[in-house]
Structures are given as C-alpha cells and as structure tokens.
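Something for you to look into today, if you have time. Just paste the record in under my message, thanks.
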Amino acid sequence: MLKSIFLAGREVNYPRNALMLSAIQGVSQTTVIGSQGSNVYKGGIRPILRQSVRSFLQLIPRLIKRDFDFVFIGFFGQLLTQMITPFTRKPIIMDMFVSAYDTLVEDRQITTRKSLLSKFLFWLDKQSSQRAKLILVDTLAHAEYFHETFGISLSKMKRVFVGCDEELFHPLPENPESHTVLYYCSYLPLHGVDVVVQAAELLQADPTIKFRIIGEGIDYKKIQKYVQENQLRNVELAAPVSIDRLPKEIQNSLICLGGHFGASAKACRVIPGKAFQMIAMGKPVIMGDNTANRELLTHGVDCWFCEMNNPRALADAISTLIQDRELRNRIAGGALKTYQEAASSKLLKSIVQESILDALKPQG
C-alpha cells in the first residue's frame, strides 16, 4: 500500500481538510501532521504561519528518512509547499482551496496590488502551484482564475466540490410553523450581508417573514448599526453557533440563503460551503447567480437564483418562494437529489482518490 503524509496550514479537522484526509486514507497509509483543535485559527495570517512552521518542523525527520510515496498538503498549503519542495523529490499533491493573493489582495483588500506583501502573495501562489504535481480546486471557475492569473495548466487541476459532513447535515422533519429566512456567515464583504438586510427592509410590510442572520466578523458592526438605525424589527442578528447546532437552525427555517450576495469577483468563483449543507438537508435555497453556483445548481430545479448585489432581486426571490409552497417543495427535493448525485462525500472522495492515483502513475 502507498505511504503518504498529510499536513496543512489550517487545522486538520477543518471540513475541507477532513474530507481530503479521509479520501487519501482510503488509498494510502497516512501519517497526519498538524493540530486537530479549532483553536489553531482565530482569524488572520499569523496563526497559519505558526501552524505551517510547526508542521514543517515535525515533518523534517520524515523528509530525512524519505519513507513515503507522496505528500498531500491541505488548506492552507501554499507556504508549506514552498518550505517542503527544496527537501524532497517525492510528488506533492496540493489542495488550492483558496488563493492567498485573491483572498487578501483582491477580495479583502488588506493591501494594495503594488505593495511588497501583494507581490509576495502572488509569488507564493504561483510558485507553489508550479511545484505541485496535482492541484485540487473547488470550482472550475477557480481553475480558470488560477490558469489566467498564475499560468497554471488546466490539465494539472481537478475540481472537487466542497461537500459537507453528512453525519450532521441530512434531511430532518421540517418545522411547518416556520417563516424564518436563514443566513449564516462570517460577515466578509463577499457574503453580502448588507444585501440581505436591505432585502429584509424591503419586506417589512409582511410581518410574518423573519430574518435570522447568524455569525460575526468584519462587517458585523456596520450591519448592526444599519439594522438599529432603520429599526428593522424583522431582522435578528444572532451570535455564532457551533457547527453541530447548524442542522437545527437549518431545520427550523422556511427558506435558506446560500449566497454569495456580495459584489466581489471572488464571490462569483466559489460555491459557499453553507450551500452544500443546506441542499444536503433538502431545503429550498436562494443562491447568488454566478458561474460557480451554476456548475452545481439549476434555477427552478434545485435552487432559486437571484442577481448578486441586488437587494430588490433577493427580496423578490424570497417573496416568490414564501408564497409558493409547491415551488419550495419541488426545489427542496431537487436540491437533495443534486447533492446526492453530484456532491456526496462518497463521490468526492472517489474523485480525490482517482485523481491522486492517476497523478502518481509512471510517465511514459
């Protein structure tokens, strides 16, 4: 049996890393290097830097022994890839779940494009991708971005949807009395929480519709101020909940908002993780209309699309589903079917395994 090493810049039990680890354990005897605790990451770059250095130091004895067939570097892996490649000729498989440059420079805009940090992040993405033998991505839209921005060959990349933990997220009996529209996020600009609360403002005339927004983050104070100043009594801003409580929140909602609703380019390249959780539970979901979401979902069949960054379009979508129970049920059934056929854990693991084994085949 093949021998592998798994390590990552984020915690090993981060959902994306957990999926990848489970997959490679099915085709190899795997040594896991990294932390299991969610306390590894509290936001920002420094925790990832610390974890990457710590993982690399733990890896050194294995690099000296060379007693493995390949290294799998999970999310966040660009820095680790750069650290490892000078010390091994063994194949490196990398999950490029996000681009450091895209996330920090183009989306969150923590620095300018001409800054030294920006240039370093661009170099980091480009160089790490060149050193990996196989790169896993979450959408074809992301693959196109990586190809156009960093010159990564499309043939080197393989799409693996995000998926979700099916032990937690599976169909549950619906709450027939609910009129709740649910959204949960970490208040990043691409999430478009401002669009959601403005849509809620447009729907104030219907006292039965309640919005429950769970989370905290960068834009929370701004959103809180808007809700208070405009006296939006139909909006509840709830504190974050643990992932094991999310299924109950989803169950108790009438309609789920899958996102993303923000205006950034990155918002159009990703399928939100929450969307997989919601459709795995067979709930009617409203999604931002973009290229990435259309890779998985179809308007009117398994979701309801609305124009991104458009509160009126979102309000109209919510009204349409609120008023049409038959449509909600049809979309909910389609959502569950799509998840089972295109994004189940079993399917995603098989894609990862087949991709790795194919990449490791002798050339020529």
